[in-house]
Amino acid sequence: MLEFMDSRKGVAQGVIDKYLKALADPEKLDQATLSQIATALGIVVDKFTKDIQKQPDTSLFSSIVKTAGDFKHEQKA
Asked: Is 3 helix (H, G, I), strand (E, B) or coil?
């Protein structure tokens, strides 16, 4: 399934472009309720920031690894 989905990325990107253009259409925006606009905007923002929000903070791990590496070098001397 993942291979199929990967092969369809170009098509999916085209559909997304069409949907984003429709969401930005002034006539459609004039006809939409505030709730509909807010919901659509929320969905778009969530999808575009999904991966950004879930990236783990590895700074503590990196510090531990660096310290452990420095400790090993000191012991060899």
From this structure: helix
Is 40 within 8 Å of 23 (Cβ atoms)?
yes
> The pTM is what?
0.51
Tell me the C-alpha to C-alpha distance, in Å, between residue 46 and each of 15, 27, 54, 63, 76: 18, 24, 11, 31, 50
Residues 2-28 pLDDT 10s: 888 889 999 988 988 898 888 889 999
SS3 readout for 13-76: HHHHHHHHHHHCCHHHHHHCCHHHHHHHHHHHHHHHHHHHHCCCCCHHHHHHHHHHHHHHHHHH
| Distances in whole angstroms, Cα of residue 69 to Cα of each of 60, 63, 77 | 14, 10, 13
